[in-house]
Amino acid sequence: MTSDYFDERGINRSRLVFAIATRRQLERWEPFVATFVRELWAHRQLSGADVWSAQIEHHFALIAARNLLRALGLDPATSVPVDPILRAELIEGRDLHEHWTENLPVFNVTPREVEPKYPSGKSFAARNPEAGNWPYWWLAWSNSTGARLLPHVSAPALHELLDAVEADVLSSDATFSEYIPPRAPSPWLHANGEWWPKEMGESGWESSSG
């Protein structure tokens, strides 16, 4: 049914639109993570409104990324390589968020007291036996990985996939370039293999020498 409906342009459109949607959600979510890190340094807490906003943007980033994976799986399959662990964890993470009533009591308790009953939870737990309240932690970061949607899904790695999908689509059909919105400035400094938050100035995210 899908192969009869989606022609080449329709497949390219689906792949590009969900790549852009995922990027948009990362651009909305990552600033909250960067601010959270800065507040930790200053021995302050993120505001309640920002914590909830981070949760919301994180949730919709997983949905957009899962739809991108569906688009990449349309026939003919994409030539863009997708890391199998990143792919598996995005699918599991989206499933665990959709079925939150069954999985919050399992994964949002530290230490984990019961085992998950369903396939996504089982595979996620097997890969991440010590992951605490993952996947319901939406402010994860380390200087070696940057912001992390899930234990094995860093924002930089996902951005690389999105860039590759965009380049692949445009190499096939450059007319889609007019539909791509401008990118938001990154809240991160990346140097010497490390990721650190920029300063938040009046005009937006700015570089910091500190």
Which key phrases capture this entry?
7 strands, two-stranded antiparallel sheet, three-stranded antiparallel β-sheet, about 10% strand, globular, single chain, about 210 residues, mainly alpha
Can I get a quick summary?
With about 210 residues, the protein is mainly α.
Layout of helices and strands:
Elements: H1 2-5, H2 8-41, H3 48-72, H4 84-98, H5 100-107, H6 119-127, E1 140-142, E2 146-150, E3 153-154, H7 155-172, E4 188-191, E5 194-197, E6 199-201, E7 204-206
Antiparallel strand pairs: 1-2, 2-3, 4-5, 6-7
Explain this structure to me?
The chain is mainly α. It has one domain (2-177). The protein has seven helices and seven strands, in the order ααααααβββαββββ. It has helices at residues 2-5, 8-41, 48-72, 84-98, 100-107, 119-127, 155-172, and strands spanning 140-142, 146-150, 153-154, 188-191, 194-197, 199-201, 204-206. Strands 1-2-3 form a three-stranded antiparallel β-sheet. It has a two-stranded antiparallel sheet with strand order 4-5. The chain is globular, with a radius of gyration of 18 Å.
